[in-house]
Amino acid sequence: MMSAVSVMSINNRPRRDYSPYLLKITSLPIETVLEDIRDFKSDASFAITELKQPHQKVYLGKLVEGGIYPIILEHLKRCEDETFADVLGEERVGHDEFIKSPLVWVVFLANSLNYLQDRDISIEIAENIDPLFKCIRDDMTRELFGEQKFWYETYPTFLAMVPNLVTKSRETMDILLQKQKLLDMIIQPLFWQMYRPDIMTDQLAVKYFSPHMFTAPMHTLYYIVARICNQINDEGQQTHNIPERLNKDEMKQLSEIGYKAIVSEAYDPKCDITFMAGLLDLIKLHDPTSKQIWYYMLNEMGTSGCVDNRVINRAVCHGSKSTLDHIDATKLPHVLFVLLHKVPPGDKLLPPLPDDARYAVAIDAGLLQMSMDMILRFESLYDNDLYRRFLSIIEGANSIAFHPKTQKAIARVDKAELRRILSKPQLHSLGRRNELCDKIFGTIAFFSKDIAPSQGPKPNFGGVLETVCSSCSKELERDAIKRCGQCKKRIYCSRECQANDWKNGHKKECKLMLQQDADTDVTGHVNSGILGSEKKKLKLQKQTVQVLAAAKEMFIESTPVVLLHANLNDWDILDCVVDINFCVSPPSFEMKLAADFLDNFTKQSVHDNLKRYIEETRADGALTINVMFNPATGQPGDKEATFLNVQINMPGSCMKQGSWPAAQKSMLETMKEDEPDWQGPGHIFAGFAPGKSLMDRWVPPRDAM
Predict the structure, then answer these.
(1) Does 291 score more than 50 pLDDT?
(2) Preceding omega of 243 cis (within 30 degrees of 0)
(3) Residue 452: how many CB atoms within 10 A of its CB?
(4) Closest Cα partner for 269 from 412, 449, 150, 140?
(5) Longest dimension (CA), the chain
(6) CA–CA–CA angle 426, 429, 430 (5° rounding)
(7) CB–CB of 364/409 below 8 Å?
(8) What are phi and psi of 44, to 5 degrees?
(9) Contact at 8 Å (CB) between 354 and 396?
(10) Which has the closest alpha carbon to 106: 155, 175, 56?
(11) Residues 262, 278: contact at Cβ < 8 Å?
């Protein structure tokens, strides 16, 4: 709630001494005072603005009952079409006995809302200030009662009155929000200093405006947003309940606030900067308390989906600035997480999901570099959730790294800048904080083929592995490659492998690949004639091929690890499932017994189908790989993690062993040769590490990839 407004301080000029009238006002008949107000008497008009003592408030209540508000509001209703001189009458103009400005009426309205906690008064004012509101909101003409001077001296008081009206009740707030361009009038003054020199350089603005006047619209907006989010109750008190999912109307109200332009359309019709984007400018300029309010609004409006590319870009760029303080470091990661994730539609309280388009914009703006840089700059904040929030952001990027826009953005990352940050000496003293940098670099290394390190997987994003059989994963010489006769995209080492792949799912894939080629123009864009559902199928199919290609190559690189893990745990290699998860950063690779893997699936039909698939794969002498990823199907609700199962036959690098069991037995014998102290399968003791000769013998040569 705003403090009382002083006529003397705002009007900035000496006034007639009305203190004698104020001292005796409570002894005067109500009708006498009302008649003086009706007759524009200055002593009575000024005195009623100062009725703040307990006994004076009682008298003010009697004035309200006598009808003082209709008198004041009737005077103000004439502000659009008449001059102040016309309202006063020629006989009163220039005499000290009568008021010389309409400011005193607005001051009375603002102060009486403070002095009297009466909801009905606020509703009466809200319903009857339309003419005054129309004049005040016109920041091009800037006239009140036909004079700019009255507009400039009254504007700060009107801004101070609005939060007093809004905070009285939800009903009053709703009445005000229905007024055309009320939100514009609250939001746009916050940006006048940056975007409206025509207003702020005027001599009248220098005389009547002060920096403190802009705290009123800030508090008004905070209250409106908090009320919409049900975080403030009808008594104006903050609630501590667990926030519930906002309904459609509440989300729409928040979006309307966030998408408001920060500059009047009449002044700049081309301005496309929204309030959400402009908030980042305000955060740079304001004190710590104000910054926290702006961050709160960014967070709440971002949750409503009020996000565009400019907002994301500015948020990331703001995080890269050297002027950040600890408030920025604690609040900005939360805001970024909200901006980069979408809340799935529907009534279910589902967690927010990473959005392909939003992440692509953020990565292009420098999200990954900024994340590492902030962790380095704010080491002392590691113990709060700064690290955890950034970790969630980076894992979100990884989980949709196969989605088209994010994938391209990762490929465009400035690798030199990342390496510059990684080379900083203080990075090595950060303990577990270094995990974040490892995850960031791991994501880039895995999903951006031109930064792949000397060790580790090198995925091929062309849709297939150019030199690996699509069925048995055998490395092929280019002159020995045989392609599918229909789609021309899958390659094989023999007709037998082609037949096996056809049975194992390529029969369906091939038809979709052919349709994709037929429905794609020379620029690579899918023709608009395809139905939406078919587009989604094609998009998912293309992504699935990419995921499987990367998973197969990741597996081939890790063949020695697979065999070693099985031997160390005394597992039969064909009893195992290799679990590859592309939903974490960097992608995880884990060996599990098939029985333990199946225990994760509680739905009976899924469990039975997977069990049957694993048994069939084992009968064929192949390994089962489970691949987890987020499909890019275009609908937020569909972006939940899904999984694919694929059987892997013996890779070419191990082909000399002939089968998986034979390769496992061969490695076991090698382990006994290299580690004389090794005590057999199932024995894992401290200090055991496979000898160099073992890994040399079992790591596939890089040129084979």
Answers:
(1) yes
(2) no
(3) 15
(4) 140
(5) 117
(6) 95
(7) yes
(8) -65, -40
(9) yes
(10) 155
(11) yes
- Give yes or no for a contact between 107 and 10, defined as CB atoms under 8 angstroms apart: yes
The token pair that represents 289 in the structure block: 């308390």
Of 342, 339, 338, nearest to 354 (Cα)? 342
Residue 533 CB-density burial (10 A; 0-12 exposed, 13-18 middle, 19+ buried): exposed
Beta bridge partners of 483: 491
Q: What residues does 588 pair with on adjacent strands?
A: 581
* 3-state SS, residue 354: strand
pLDDT tens digits along 61-112: 899 999 999 999 999 999 988 999 999 988 888 888 889 899 999 999 988 8
d(C-alpha 257, C-alpha 260), whole Å: 6
Q: How many CB atoms sit inside 10 A of residue 362's CB?
A: 27
- CB distance 633 to 540 below 8 Å: yes
**Quick check: 188 and 263 in contact, CB under 8 A?**
yes
- Single-letter residue type at 350: L
pLDDT of residue 201: 92
Q: Got the DSSP string for 563-597?
A: HHHHHHTT--GGGEEEEEETTSSSPEEEEEEHHHH
The rounded distance, in Å, linking the Cα atoms of 419 and 504 is 42
Residue in this structure with the two tokens 């380095």, named with its chain if needed: 376
First to last CA, the chain: 69
* 463/285 Cα distance (integer angstroms): 49
Answer whether 254's CB lies under 8 Å from 301's CB. Answer: yes
Calpha distance 33→25 (Å, rounded): 8
Quick: pLDDT tens for 373-416: 887 777 666 555 677 788 788 878 877 777 778 878 887 887 77
- Single out the residue of 188, 180, 247 nearest to residue 221, CA to CA: 188
Ramachandran angles phi, psi of 562, nearest 5°: -60, -50
**Residue 532: is its pLDDT beyond 70?**
no
**Residue whose entry in the numeric block shows the structure tokens 């745990």:** 569
Taking CB atoms within 8 Å and a gap of at least 24, the contacts of 680-686 are 681/567, 681/568, 681/569, 681/570, 682/568, 682/569, 682/570, 684/568, 684/569
Which residue, 361, 264, 356, 240, is CA-closest to 312?
Answer: 361
At residue 38, the pLDDT reads 92
pLDDT tens, position by position, 219-249: 889 988 888 888 777 666 666 555 567 778 8
pLDDT at residue 702 is higher than 60: no
Mean pLDDT of the chain: 75
- Sorted by sequence, the CB contacts under 8 Å of residue 368 that are 6+ apart come out as 394, 397, 413, 418, 440, 443, 444
Which residues, 6 or more positions from 98, have their beta carbon under 8 angstroms from its beta carbon? 39, 40, 41, 42, 88, 92
pTM of the model: 0.67
Q: Judge contact between 403 and 638, C-beta under 8 A.
A: no
Written as one letter, the residue type at 198 is D
Which residue in this structure is represented by tokens 């391209």? 408
Q: Nearest-CA neighbor of 667 among 562, 576, 592, 554?
A: 562
Contact 270, 239 (CB under 8 A): no
Query: What letter represents residue 302's amino acid?
Result: G
Look at residues 403, 497, 387 and name the one whose alpha carbon lies nearest to residue 447: 403
Q: Given this model, what pLDDT does residue 658 score?
A: 65
Please provide residue 623's backbone torsions phi and psi, each rounded to the nearest 5 degrees: -95, 150
3-state secondary structure of 406: helix
CB 621 within 8 A of CB 655: no
Provide the token pair at 90: 């020629």
Distance CA 653, CA 642 (A): 30
Query: Residues near 518 by Cβ (< 8 Å), separated by ≥ 6?
Result: none
φ/ψ of residue 82, rounded to 5: -125, 155
